[in-house]
Each structure stands twice: as structure tokens, then as C-alpha cells.
Amino acid sequence: MDIYTYWSQTLEMFKKTFDDQVIFDSIFTLLKAREIRDNELIVTIDSIFNIGYVDDYVDQLQDIYNSIAGTNIKLVIMSDNDYQKQFHSPEEVNDIIYEDHLQPGYTFSNFVVGNSNRIAQNASLAVAMKPGVAYSPLFIYSNSGLGKTHLLHAIGNFAKEKDPNIHVLYCTSEEFVNEYIASLSNGNMDSFNRKYRSMDILLVDDIQFIASKESSSEMFFNIFNSLQNDNKQIVITSDKPPKDLKGMENRLVSRFINGLTVTIDTPEFETAKAILKKKIEIQKVDYPINEEVIDFIASHFNNDVRELEGSVKRLLFYKLVFGKDKEEIDLEFALEAFADTYDAKQETGSLTVDSIKKAVAEYYNLTVNQINSKSRTSNIIVARHIAMYLVRTMISDMSFIQIGKEFGGRDHSTVMKACNKVERNLSKDPNYRKAVNDIKKRIS
Ligand code: ADP
Ligand code: MG
């Protein structure tokens, strides 16, 4: 019989004497016999963090093994990683074959930068230029369709172009979980571990899926730590900030917070326009599109970038089918192209706090985050007060308390004061009155 059989019998026997079934199943079963060297049986476990659980039982396991195998060897337990490092040449670690899953189309050069995403783009670029040095981990969160996935790929593509030998891997946290589960059942834990731990840049998209998956999140934590220790770069995206990741272990959340956290906002009017122009440019459109059309789309289909993209596609498709002989896309034609979506939008377009904030933010070329923020910059304060006032006057049934909550958890008296102030300004300042009316027009 070989050491592997002896070892599985050893575990079987040990199991009978061990009373915590859960620990046995989740930890001890990870122990793998590797080889005998110099009268030492080397047994490994997936991570150094699990060694603490098994350390106290080394002697007992050793005795069982020796009695079954009729040998007199010493049992040594180490992590997979240490085993690879100690006994196998570095080339072997470097030789892992994997797919990076990077999409070449998502680059920094076709990512349009504006107020809504500038910080996230800057941080991503810094990380791509100096992986592991600038900020690790970098944590990017936002609603969907605002460019997180695009930035992750851009980081990977940029770093790869600079150094083709760099190890980069893009995966969604869902793919990570699936691969982890598959490797558990195929007994490929080693190569799974080796692959992830040998990355210079690990890009993990939509981490929220991993949060509630305990054993996967444990595994991720181990890999995360190992990469952090080696000064490798980790970039994570999520639909919410770290502290709101329900089910995510606190120790993981606090690791995330230790890095740099950035967010992406809904594009403001100017950024939306720039993105539209970029998308049109990429499509190599050979007929002019009137500026009014761009304005129209930028102000009506701007919930996220995906919506902007969709509307460009729709417009160009409509031109292809119904406007073959039109020399230019003008507003009239665009209105036709969007007739059904646009009308539907008007009908269902009920007034919300968000739509008001957005309109005000756009008018002042600010982001919604700035409106909600604690910033005391004067133009932000003016915009914030107007937004509060409009919510109070345009949406029925909103109490001052509710409004306070909607605006970054402010006190009801703050909201009352803001509304009074706006009313005073409205009565004495015609320019101010005009601004508020213009915003109102945009909202309705
Ligand atoms: P998320 O991952 O946040 O849901 P994506 O990265 O998938 O968003 O972005 C949705 C689409 O919008 C993608 O096609 C992406 O290329 C595009 N996009 C997002 N932000 C920008 C930007 N600033 N410039 C150009 N395209 C963008
Ligand atoms: Mg995404």
C-alpha cells in the first residue's frame, strides 16, 4: 500500500476519536499526504491559517499512521504554499496555465472620465501603473452600469501591456465560488490555490455574491491575505460599500476598508454627453448627429452608462432601418426613434427624490453624492438646499424628518431651515428664481 492509502486510513481512524464532526469535515479532510522525505511524512493543508486547528493533533495522527503502516516516521504538517516553495522549483509555480479572462475592448482609452467617475478612474490607473504599491486592495462600488467591470478590465489590460509577463486574473466572485466548489470535489485544491496565489493582480468583480457563502469567503480571505502579504494587487468591485456587505465576515470587511474605497456616480449631463460622443465615435458613424440629439439623449436616458449605450444603439439602428436617405440625425428623427420608450418614460416617470437630486446635481454640474455629502462648499450647499426644497414642495407626503434621512441622514430642523432659506431667496432674487424654475422644468 502507498502513503496515500495509509493516510486516508489514518484519517478514518482519527475521526472515530475526534468529537467535533464539523471541524473534522471542514478542516481535517483538507490534510493531504504528499511524500516521505528523510523519514518525514509531509502532509499539507490548503492554508497556513488552518494549521492552527490541526497542530495539537500531530502526535496523535503520527502514532495512528505509524501503527497502520508499521513505520516509525515523523509527521510534518505545512501549508500547500510552503510545500510548493520549499520542495518545488519556482518555475513550477510560474508555469501554471490559466486564462486571464480579460476583455481587450475595455481599456482606459475608451473610458470617458468626468466628475462622476474621476476618482475611481484615477485610482484604477494608479493601480494599473504600480500594482501592489499604490492602493491595495482597491475597492470600487456603485450601482450597476456605471463602469466598474470596465475599469477592472482596463486595469488588467493596461498592466499586461506594460509587462506581458505579469500574472493578471479577472473573475467574478461567482466564478471564484464555482471554481472553488469544483476544485473541492475534484480534489484540485492545490492547483486552485496555486493559481490564485500566484497572481500579481487579482481582479474580483461583484464581491457581493461571495458574502453569504461561508466556506468560499473563508477561502477568499486566505487567498486575499496571502496576496496582501506578498504585496500583490487586489481590486474588488461591489454594488455597495464594504460595510454594507451583508453576511460578509467582519475581518474581511475590515481588510477591505484598510485599502482605498472609491465610488462611481451616475454621470452628470456633461459626462453623459462625452460618453455618448465616444460611443458614437467608436461606431464609426459616417453621418452627422445634431448636438440637440446628444443633449436629448444625455438628459433623458442617463440613469447609467448602459442606458446611454443602449440609446445610441437604438438610434443608429433606427437610422439604418428607417433613415437610409437622411443625411443627418436631427432631433425630430431622434424623437421618432425613441417615441415608445420616451412616452413610456413620461407615463411611468413618477417623481422621486432621486430624480430631483439628479436634476439639481446636473444643473449645477455636481454629483448626487456631493448633494448628499457633508460638504460645506458654497455651491454644493446652494444645490442641496434647492433639492430639499423641491422634494418638499413637489412630492406630497414627505415630512422634514424623511427628507433629512434622504439627504445623508440630516436632522429635520436642518431641512426646515433650508426650505425657509430657499423661500426667502425666491422672493427676493430673480436670478435665483429663474434657476429654480429651470430646474423644475428639467424635472417635469
Ligand atoms: P458595471 O460593472 O458598473 O455594472 P460596466 O463596466 O459593465 O458597469 O459598464 C456598462 C457599460 O457602460 C459597459 O459597456 C462600459 O463599457 C460602459 N461604460 C461605463 N462607464 C463608461 C465610461 N466612463 N466611458 C465609456 N464607457 C463606459
Ligand atoms: Mg459589472
Q: DSSP helix count?
A: 23
The CATH superfamily of the largest domain is known as: P-loop containing nucleotide triphosphate hydrolases
How many domains make up the 3D coordinates? 4
User: Could you give the order of strands across the largest sheet?
Assistant: 5-6-7-4-8
- End-to-end separation in angstroms reads 81 Å
Based on helices, strands and strand pairing, what is the structural class? alpha/beta
Relative strand content: 5-15%
- Low-confidence sequence ranges: 344-348
Percentage of residues assigned to helices: 55-70%
| CATH top-level class of the largest domain | Alpha Beta
CATH topology group of the largest domain: Rossmann fold
Instruction: Give a short account of the largest sheet.
Output: 5 strands, parallel
Q: How would you characterize the overall build of this protein?
A:
The protein is of the alpha/beta class and 444 residues long. The protein has helices at residues 3-17, 21-26, 51-54, 58-69, 80-87, 90-94, 118-129, 148-162, 173-186, 189-197, 214-229, 250-258, 269-282, 291-300, 305-322, 331-337, 339-348, 353-363, 368-372, 378-394, 400-406, 412-428, 430-443, and strands at residues 32-37, 40-45, 74-79, 138-141, 168-172, 201-205, 233-238, 260-263. The protein has 4 domains: 3-87, 2-Layer Sandwich (GMP Synthetase, Chain A, domain 3), CATH 3.30.300.180; 118-263, P-loop containing nucleotide triphosphate hydrolases (Rossmann fold), CATH 3.40.50.300; 269-337, Helicase, Ruva Protein, domain 3 (Orthogonal Bundle); 353-443, Chromosomal Replication Initiator Protein Dnaa, Chain: A (Orthogonal Bundle). It has 23 helices and 8 strands. Helix 9 packs across helix 11. The longest helix has 18 residues, at 305-322. The radius of gyration is 29 Å and the shape is elongated. The N and C termini lie far apart (81 Å). The relative contact order is 0.07. Bound molecules: adenosine-5'-diphosphate and magnesium ion. The site of adenosine-5'-diphosphate has 18 residues, from helix 8, helix 13 and helix 15. Residues 148-149, 205 line the site of magnesium ion (MG).
